[in-house]
Amino acid sequence: TAFGAGLVVRDDNAKKYDSWQDLKGDVVGTMAGTDYTQSLMQSGIAKEVKVYDSPADMTRDLSLGRIAAGMNDYPILKAQAKAGGLKGMHVVEGYKPEHVSPMAFGVKKGNDKLLAEIDSALTAMKQDGTLQTIKDKWGMP
Fold it and tell me: pLDDT at position 89, please?
């Protein structure tokens, strides 16, 4: 499974966002410490990039109209939406992030036993449908 940045906007925002090129002229919120924050800032596409330490602060400013769109890891936005934390807002499903990264587990070098156990469990979860059930639960494709 791989993911990139997701985009969230207010429900009353009718602008079409297919890529970050569509953020041109907008004030965009994004999360501190993410690779896409620096890329977006360096691109000069957005009118302004506001950097937030927490998703709750960013979505609060979005709901108040202080930013036009918010950018965060797609799975985090989907979990917020599923938990009811995006009232009056929605994740833009047609948005394609600039960069997509695979998800991975970090294992201490040399811990081959744990790595094999994780790989085995993930393979079994894919085969029996458990992984897809979890993804479906949280609204992930």
Answer: 97
Distances (CA, A) of 69 to 40, 47, 54, 58, 139: 13, 12, 15, 9, 20
Strands 69-73 and 27-31, by their bridges, are: parallel
pTM across the whole model: 0.79
Q: Helix, strand, or coil here: 9? A: strand
Distance between alpha carbon 54 and the CA centroid of its chain, in Å? Answer: 13
40, 30 Cβ separation under 8 angstroms: yes
Match 């990039």 to its residue by tokens.
49
* Averaged pLDDT in 10-residue chunks for the chain of 141 residues: 87 94 96 90 94 94 97 91 92 88 83 92 91 79 69
**Calpha distance 98→28 (Å, rounded):** 15
- Spatial CA neighbour of 74 closest among 51, 53, 103: 103
d(CA 52, CA 68): 14
User: Using CA atoms, how far apart are residues 28 and 26, in angstroms rounded to an integer?
Assistant: 6
C-alpha distance from residue 7 to each of 33, 84, 100 (Å): 17, 16, 14
